[in-house]
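Usage example:
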Amino acid sequence: MVAQIMTIGRFVVLEAWRARMSGIIAVALFLALGTSLFVKELAITESGRVQIAFLSALARLAAVCVTALYVVSTMAREFNDRVVDLTVSLELPRAAVVLGKFVGYAAMAVVIGAAAGTVLSPFAGGAGLLVWTFTLILELWIVVAMSLFCIITFNQVMPAASFVVAFYALARSIGALQLISASPLVADQSLAHRFMDWTLDVLAYLLPNLDRFGQTVLLYDDHAHLANIASLLGQTLVYVLLLICAALFDFYRKNF
Amino acid sequence: MRKNQQRSWREIPGSVVTLMGIALILQLAWHANQPRPLAKAEDLGAPPPALALHAASLGDPVFLSYLLLLRLQAFDNQPGISIPFKDLDYARVIEWLDASLALDPASQYPLLLAATVYSQVPDEAKRKEMLDFVYRRFLDDPVHRWQWLAHASVMAKHRLNDLPLALKYAQAIADHASDPTVPSWARQMHIFLRAEMGEREAARILLGGLLAGGTVRDPNETAFLLQRLQELENAEKSPVEPKN
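Running the assembly step on the lines above writes:
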């Protein structure tokens, strides 16, 4: 089954190459670089830090958007063109199809994350940049797994893309939302407030803390904590496993 | 006949369900082991320079001016933490108010915040700093900003118990806001403050001059001022302190 997974994965990478994904990500990163240089010219103090902050945030956003949209749109096309029907009709376990797709898209995410790190390399270096790039790749793997799960579940681009965007925004802001909810300013302990507080806590349990991935502060100093990286790697593995299993759950129930 | 979209649950391999259960338990355990997010107070940084702000406004400085004010206003309420106004760096707050006012000089919002929000802290030095900001910005456009200095004068008198400061502000209104649109009570404030400070002679002369100058046209206002003038003259003859 490993050989089948790798074959499907190789075809996903090949398709991405032929679809000129490299060109798209290059243009997106070039635009991010241009914007950050413009912002640097506007700042009169800490211009270097300002540029790095803008570039890392824009590069991360570009990488996440391009990856999620690519996964969702190519998978939707394969469903519409009956390519998936044809694939599952072969002597191939369904799990191999999903895992192969994930492996291919994850490899593509490695290239995208590395490209983002390369764009940042003239302005920030050392262990901080390596850790930033690595955690961005981990973040992209979670995005790939979520996109795959959504498109398998919803089949349509719009609902799948919307769900991925909502998931990403919520996963990045859940920590801040919890803090706001627990703030003493919100002193009204009404039933509705307690319910919202509880709901946020439950959501926090079910979501990965994406705000801990790809932090710009890593690019300012080299104090990259290896324990932190291990923790993020563990979170990624657990969450990707959960999403892939959920995707498999839906994929096995699909009738082609 | 329409094909059934979903296959039976039994088609799902047991290993997938087991793995999903394990992954879910691991996710919950992982999250339970993480420390809760901690609220951290963030220092108020300097606003961007004026040139950068003008460039960033994309030709619409009014919008950006309000955006700066909202950012400043929301600063005391950071996620999970509330910073008392008195703990803010007032030099920085003034820089933000100045930046907003520079983008939209017609806006009353920055002066309102300075006169009625940031000057209410229980710290005399910070109150004076904010009132002084209102005074300086009043001098740039007295006709449109007199009300905030009038408020500052009242604040100086009643909150700071600093009559000379209140008089300085009231005198500035009389000296600089001579436009007829500025109500006469604002331009007369300094007279009553002088009377209160014991400068009855000066107050009497100023009030007499005001009445003789013919700028007061409202009969009720004239009657009121005449009554105050009479009180001042009586007070000068008698050693008893005049009532307010």
